[in-house]
Specification:
heterodimer, A: 492 residues, mainly alpha, 20 helices, 69% helix, B: 362 residues, alpha/beta, two-stranded parallel sheet, 48% helix
C-alpha cells in the first residue's frame, strides 16, 4: 500500500483518521496505541517479513536503550561515558542490520571483481524503508546515550510508535527524536485541530498532484532517455536531465508533502523536508533545502561528533567529505551513489574554500549554476552504473545534435491541447503540438519551483475558490491512479 | 467573513464524496467493461479494449460458441463463423497471450455458460514450448481487478480516469444523441484496424536468410514442457467439457517465419513439438485439430501477411471455410505422416531462391 493508491486514500486513511479521532476522545494513549496498530498494519501490507524485521529492530533497540539508561543511572551524572559499550553495540546492530540487507551483494560483487573470486550472490529481501527507520533508531540511541530529556523513562509503546509511525516510515522524513518523541509523550497534547487538519489535507492534495500529474510524466521522459540512451541526441539528453531533475524533486517532495499532510490530520507535526531546493544559490545552500531531515541527521549525528568545523580547516573539509560519502552510501549500494555523494562533498569544500568570493557572482547566475551542477549530478545518480554514466556524458557533450524524437515529446502531450489549437486559423502538426506541450510542461515546472511558495511556506486559504480548485485537482489525481493501459507486445 | 477551516474541511470531504459517488455509480451502472452485467439496452457500447473487456464479455454476454486465442484470431468474423456452424458466437482474442491466459478465460466461459457448443481456438507455435503457468507480464499493467472476485479492488475500475471519460461518458453521450443501443460487432472487435498486407512487409525477413543451420531436436525438458502446457491448458479443459466441440488449429505463419527457424536451427524441434502436441490433443474425442502448413497458397503467398505471422482477414475467412469443409484436419491416422511431410517440406525448401524470386516480382 502506497500513499498514492486508492486503497490508502479511500479506505485506510479515512478509517485510521476517524478511528484515531474516536479513540483519542477517551485518552491520547488509546489514540496512540491505535496509531501504532495502524502503522504496523500499513507496514505489514508491504510484506509480512518486513514487519518481522521492523519489530525485531524496535525490540532490540529498546532493550539496548534501556540498558544504556540503567548504566547511566547507576554510574551517576558525572560519568559521561556510562553506557558507551551498549551504545556502540546499538550502532553495530543498526548499521549491521542495514548493511546486511542493503549492502551484502554490493560487497560480494566488489570482492569478486577485486579478487576475481566467484562468491555467489545471495537473494536477500530488502525491507522497504529500512534506511529511514534505522537512522531514526540510531538517532534515538544517540539521544539516549547523551541523556536527552525526551528519552528518559520512555515506554516501549511510545518507542515503537516513534519508529513505526506510518506517515514517515517508507520514505521519510527522518523524524528526529527531539521533534517527534515529545509530541508522542505529551499526554495533554491537543490532537484535533481543525485548521491544522485542513492544512494537512491541502498539503496531501498538493503532494499527490506533484506525484501523479508531474513526477510520473517527467519520469516517463527520463526513463525514455535512459532506455534509448544509445540513440539519444544532446538535445534529448538535456531534456532527459531536466526531466529527471523534476521527477526526483516532485516525487520525493510530493511524498513528503503527503506524509506531513497525513501527519497533520493525525495531530502530529513532521518537520519540512524540502524548501524550494532549485532556488539554491550554491550546493551548500542546496543541501539546506533538499531532504532536510537527512541533512539534519548527518549534521547532528555524524558531522558534529566528528568535530564539525571546530578542529581546523583541513579537518572540516575532511568531515564534509565524510558526511557526503555516508550520504552517498546511504542512498544505495552502487558506485554511482558513492561518487555522487563525494562530488557533492567536493563541491561544498570548493565553495567553502572560495568563501565570500562567490558572493560577487550575481545571485541569478549562482542559482542557474547551482541548478546545472545539481541536475548534471542527478544524471550520475540515475545511471545504472558508471559505464552507463560514461555513455550519458558522451551523448550529453559529444553528440551535439539538438533534434528531439517524436516519442519523447509525445510523453508531454497535454490532454485537449489539440482541440484548443484547432481553433487557430493555422495548421499545426502533431510534432509542433507535442513540442509546445513539452515547453509548457517544463516551463510550468520551472515556475512552480522558482516562483511559487512551496507547501511549507504558502499561505493556506479556506474559501470557496480554494475548495473548488482543490476538489478538481484531487478528483483528477484520484482517477489518474488507474487507467486503461495499452498492452504493447513485440512478439506474437 | 472569517473563514472556518473546520467547515471548509467538512465541505471538502462532502464534495469529494459526492463527486466520487457520482463517478462510481455512473461507471457501475453503465459498466463499459461489463464487469457487473451485460450491456444495458438502449446504450451503445464500443468494444475496443480486449484485456479490459474480454472477461466481462465472457461472463455476461449470451452466446453458445467462443472464438479465442492470440492475435491470430483478431481477423476472424463471428458472422462468418455463425453462418457456417449455426452458432451465436463471441470473439475474445488475447494478443500475445500464453496458453494459460486463454485457458483461464475459457474456464470463466464454462463457469458461466453451460451450453457452449463450439470453441474455436488457435495454438500459437511461439507459446507451445512454455511453462504451463507462464503468463505475459511484459506487456503492461494487467487489470487483475476485472478478473477476480475481490470487490475491494473494484475501486480501480469505478474511479478510473479512462473508464470514466473514454468509455462511460461517451457511451452516455451517444445515448443522449439518440444512437441506437447495442455493441460493436465482433467482426470489428480487432486491434488490427487499417493494417495493410503485402509481401514488402515480409520479404526483409526472408532476404535475411543465411542458410540452413544444424537442427536441434526437442530435449526431454522441452518435451515435458509441451506435455504439461498442452495437458493443463488445453486437453484437460476439453475432457472436462465433453459436450463442447473444441476446434483447435495451429495458425499458418508465413514461410518467412519458417526460414527464421531454419536459420536458427530450431525448425526440426518446432515440428517435433507440434507433433507431440497433436498426439496429446487427439486423445480427446471432442477435439478436432487443424494445421495448414502444407498449403502453399496460404503460407507462400506473402501478400497474405503484414509480418512473419499475422495473416489477413481474407486468410481468416479461408481458414474458417476449410475447417467447415473438413480440409487440413489432423487425425490419429495422419498425424505422423503430416509431421514427416512438414519436415520434408521445410527442411528442403529453397528459402533463398524463393526470396530472390519474390523480391524480383515485387
Amino acid at each position: 500500500m502506497q500513499f498514492n493508491s486508492l486503497y490508502f486514500i479511500l479506505m485506510f486513511l479515512p478509517l485510521v483518521v476517524a478511528a484515531h479521532h474516536l479513540a483519542g476522545r477517551s485518552s491520547k494513549k488509546a489514540g496512540d496505541l491505535l496509531l501504532l496498530a495502524a502503522s504496523l498494519f500499513f507496514y505489514g501490507t508491504q510484506n509480512i517479513w518486513y514487519l518481522v524485521f521492523l519489530a525485531a529492530s524496535i525490540a532490540v533497540n529498546y532493550l539496548l536503550c534501556r540498558g544504556i539508561q540503567a548504566q547511566r543511572k547507576r554510574a551517576g551524572a558525572s560519568d559521561k561515558k556510562a553506557g558507551r559499550g551498549l551504545f556502540v553495540l546499538s550502532l553495530v546492530c543498526n548499521i549491521g542490520f542495514l548493511g546486511y540487507f542493503k549492502y551484502t551483494n554490493f560487497l560480494v560483487e566488489n570482492l569478486n571483481a577485486i579478487w576475481k573470486a566467484d562468491i555467489p550472490l545471495t537473494s536477500i529481501l530488502l525491507p522497504v524503508g529500512i534506511s529511514f527507520y534505522t537512522f531514526s533508531e540510531i538517532a534515538f540511541a544517540a539521544d539516549v546515550y547523551r541523556g536527552q530529556p525526551w528519552t528518559e523513562g520512555i515506554s516501549f509503546w511510545d518507542c515503537a510508535l516513534y519508529a513505526a509511525y506510518f506517515p514517515k516510515i517508507l520514505q521519510g522524513p527522518i523524524a528526529l527524536p527531539r521533534d517527534l518523541v515529545p509530541q508522542i509523550r505529551d499526554r495533554n497534547r491537543k490532537q484535533q485541530d481543525p485548521e491544522n487538519a485542513a492544512i494537512g489535507l491541502q498539503m496531501f492534495v498538493f503532494g499527490l498532484a506533484k506525484k501523479v500529474l508531474l513526477a510520473d510524466v517527467f519520469g516517463q521522459a527520463a526513463d525514455w532517455g535512459f532506455q534509448y540512451l544509445v540513440l539519444t541526441t544532446t538535445g534529448e539528453m538535456l531534456l532527459t536531465m531536466v526531466s529527471y531533475t523534476f521527477q526526483i524533486y516532485f516525487d520525493f517532495s510530493g511524498y513528503s508533502d503527503m506524509a506531513i499532510g497525513v501527519s497533520k490530520l493525525l495531530g502530529y507535526e513532521l518537520l519540512p523536508n524540502f524548501d524550494s531546493p532549485y532556488q539554491a544559490v550554491s550546493v551548500t545552500d542546496f543541501w539546506r533545502r533538499w531532504h532536510i531531515s537527512l541533512t539534519t541527521f548527518l549534521r547532528e549525528y555524524v558531522y558534529f561528533p566528528l568535530g564539525g568545523s571546530r578542529r581546523g580547516k583541513a579537518r572540516t573539509y575532511l568531515n564534509i567529505l565524510l558526511v557526503f560519502l555516508v550520504s552517498g552510501i546511504w542512498h544505495g549500494p552502487n558506485w554511482t551513489f558513492v561518487l555522487w555523494g563525494v562530488l557533492h562533498g567536493l563541491c561544498q569544500m570548493a565553495e567553502r574554500a572560495a568563501g565570500k568570493t562567490l558572493l560577487r557572482i550575481p545571485t541569478v547566475l549562482r542559482r542557474i549554476g547551482t541548478f546545472l551542477i545539481v541536475s548534471f549530478l542527478w544524471l550520475l545518480f540515475r545511471s545504472a552504473d558508471l559505464a552507463e554514466f560514461q555513455r550519458v556524458l558522451w551523448h550529453l557533450f559529444l553528440d551535439r545534435h539538438f533534434n528531439f524524437g517524436a516519442d519523447l515529446l509525445a510523453i508531454f502531450r497535454l490532454p485537449g491541447i489539440r482541440s484548443v489549437l484547432n481553433v487557430l486559423p493555422i495548421g499545426i502538426s502533431d510534432g509542433a503540438v507535442n513540442a509546445l506541450s513539452t515547453v509548457l510542461y517544463v516551463g510550468f515546472a520551472f515556475v512552480l519551483c522558482n516562483a511559487v511558495p512551496n507547501t511549507n511556506r504558502r499561505t493556506y486559504r479556506f474559501g470557496v475558490g480554494t475548495l473548488l480548485v482543490l476538489a478538481v485537482i484531487f478528483y483528477i489525481c484520484l482517477l489518474s491512479l488507474t487507467g486503461v493501459s495499452t498492452f504493447v507486445y513485440n512478439n506474437f | 467573513m472569517k473563514k472556518n477551516p473546520g467547515k471548509w474541511l467538512k465541505n471538502f470531504i462532502l464534495l469529494m464524496a459526492a463527486l466520487l459517488a457520482v463517478t462510481g455509480i455512473l461507471t457501475a451502472v453503465v459498466d463499459p467493461f461489463f464487469h457487473y452485467h451485460a450491456p444495458l439496452p438502449g446504450l451503445s457500447y464500443e468494444l475496443s479494449q480486449q484485456r479490459f473487456q474480454n472477461d466481462g464479455i465472457t461472463r455476461h454476454f449470451s452466446y453458445n460458441a467462443v472464438i479465442t486465442g492470440t492475435s491470430m484470431t483478431e481477423n476472424f468474423k463471428t458472422s462468418e463463423f455463425d453462418a457456417l456452424f449455426g452458432t451465436n458466437s463471441i470473439k475474445v482474442p488475447y494478443p500475445g497471450a500464453t496458453y494459460r491466459e486463454i485457458s483461464d478465460n475459457l474456464d470463466a466461459a464454462f463457469a458461466t455458460h453451460d451450453d457452449i457448443a463450439i470453441v474455436l481456438r488457435c495454438l500459437d507455435y511461439t507459446q507451445l514450448v512454455k511453462d504451463p503457468d507462464a503468463l505475459r507480464t511484459d506487456m503492461g499493467e494487467y487489470p487483475e481487478y476485472l478478473y477476480d472476485s475481490n470487490p475491494f479492488n473494484d475501486v480501480q475500475y469505478l474511479f478510473n480516469l479512462d473508464a470514466m471519460f473514454e468509455y462511460t461518458i461517451p457511451t452516455l453521450i451517444r445515448c443522449l444523441r439518440g444512437e441506437p443501443g447495442g455493441v460493436t460487432s465482433f467482426d470489428d472487435y480487432s486491434w488490427t484496424g487499417e493494417d495493410t498486407y503485402s509481401r514488402d512487409k515480409v520479404l526483409p525477413t526472408l532476404l535475411s536468410y543465411q542458410g540452413m543451420a544444424k537442427q536441434e531436436n526437442l530435449t526431454d525438458k522441452e518435451r515435458q514442457l509441451v506435455t504439461d502446457n498442452i495437458t493443463e491448458n488445453v486437453l484437460n479443459q476439453a475432457l472436462a467439457n465433453p459436450d463442447t466441440e473444441f476446434i483447435i488449429f495451429f495458425p499458418p505463419y508465413s514461410i518467412a517465419w519458417w526460414s527464421d527457424l531454419a536459420g536458427e536451427g530450431t525448425l526440426k524441434k518446432q515440428i517435433q513439438a507440434e507433433e507431440l502436441a497433436e498426439e496429446l490433443l487427439l486423445t480427446a474425442p471432442n477435439i478436432r485439430l487443424y494445421s495448414f502448413n502444407l498449403e502453399d497458397d496460404i503460407i507462400c503467398d506473402l501478400d497474405n501477411y503484414k509480418d512473419e505471422g499475422h495473416y489477413s482477414p481474407a486468410v481468416s475467412s479461408m481458414l474458417l471455410q476449410r475447417i467447415h469443409d473438413g480440409k487440413d484436419e489432423i487425425t490419429k491416422e495422419n498425424v505422423a505422416s503430416y509431421a514427416k511431410a512438414q519436415e520434408e517440406k521445410f527442411m528442403n525448401f529453397d528459402y533463398a531462391g524463393f526470396a530472390g524470386k519474390e523480391s524480383g516480382d515485387s
